[in-house]
Amino acid sequence: MIDWLKRIGSKTSDMLRGDHYGYSVDIIPRFPLQKWFERMVRHITVPEDQQKSLEDLARKGGIVYAMKESSQIDFVYISMRLHQLGLPSPVFMFDHHPYFWQPRWYGIKNLVYHCAHLLRHGCFPDPYAGGHYVEKIKAGQSGVFSLVGKRGYYRSTVLVGNDPLEHLIDIQKTCDRPIFIVPLVLLYSRRPEGRQRWGPLEFFLGQKKPFGFLRKMISSIRGNPYAVMETGEPLNVLETLPELSKDLWQKRKQIFELRRTLIDSVDEIKRAVVGPITKSKLEMKEIILHHPKLEALMERRARATSQEIWRVRLEADSYLDEIAANYNVTFIQIAAKIFNWVWNNVFDGIEMDSESLQKVKRAARQHTLVYVPCHKSHMDYLLLSQLLYSNNLYAPFIAAGKNLAFWPLGPIFRMGGAFFIRRTFKGLKFYAEVFALYVKTMVQLGHNVEFFIEGGRSRTGKLVLPKLGLLAILIQAVEEGFCDDLVFVPTSICYDRIPEVESYLREITGGPKE
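Predicted structure:
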């Protein structure tokens, strides 16, 4: 019995010896359900160009990832997925004790050590003062820190405690190799903010953000098939050193600006992937019908035609019913999966200009885009929307001819983002004003738009002379202050063989137009 107690005492002494900070995990975290987690994270998509960028950064210096909000679930997902891809994966997380994700004995040892340290000194061991993070970064290991949170707020605003960003700058002063801070976003849902679905989970746990551990775990499981990981432009800490003031308060202000730059970068990445808040069809109609410009126009029309105002409003409402899209993220997710299978199994796949796509992604993070593709086939809009969605850009709203609004295709196209336009506005001045205001309101809300400048499909394979009506409306949107700017994206879609070639040949030889 005495020997057994001595062995217990010896084990306890071993636990309390050394610097068991406990902020790190293995490169391959070992914990309960590890194998299940490894299968889960394989679904997370990471763009190939961003993988190459991380490889290049790792050869030049150290990498620390910046997330907007702290989450141990996100930390483990990021670490495991990047390791699977052979990329620099974070092994430590600033200000977090990942006991659960550590090997069982190692996690228990750290927990015992921390409790003992708390009893002896009244606080947990300080990884900042103890040089823990310095040691990890100088050893070439990657880490993660959060940009927003209660701790970070008091550190950056009240100036109490250690700040990870300031600590990284101090570490850089003693390192020859640069430290790169890489903004990173991990999304489990492609739904825009403010349009999250409401189900049993939301009923019991609400939609409060940031999510707690349980809510984050369930969300990661539920949204796993659609999870995406995106990185932004890296911040080279070494290049920021000469710009920092020697005055403490001025330096803190500069660090705050750096933090805001990183937060803005994360928000821009997220916006490009999920898009702005999507208004429902009814909300869009209500916004447009109460727009001062349309209200004044309806009053003038009521006086000119000797109608009651409610009849004119009803006419405008019927036009909006005819025009408006009914954008549905769930439908787009399912359609993207189906068409991805079609392109790769029924056809021989798709070749894409990856370099140009990266330019589009960078532009999408800061601007509203207008895609202007050539039009040779009905497959054009299906191809473009699916390719954009599969490359972590949200599908745009598409101007489609009214001839496609028939049931059942009309409602299906509306869910995919189609809004309908008549072939001519001749003699339809009121309709033209309602349609123009619908388009201007969409770009005002930040939605990307796609339209075919040729109007209809080219039956010969050559470009048709452009129709300038919708282009003029979009330019007016900028001139009238609906949006600050628009970026037009000319898009060429080419086919080895156009699917409708046989129907085109029939039309050329005198057959009916389809």
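Summary: Residues 193 and 277 are 6 Å apart (CA to CA).
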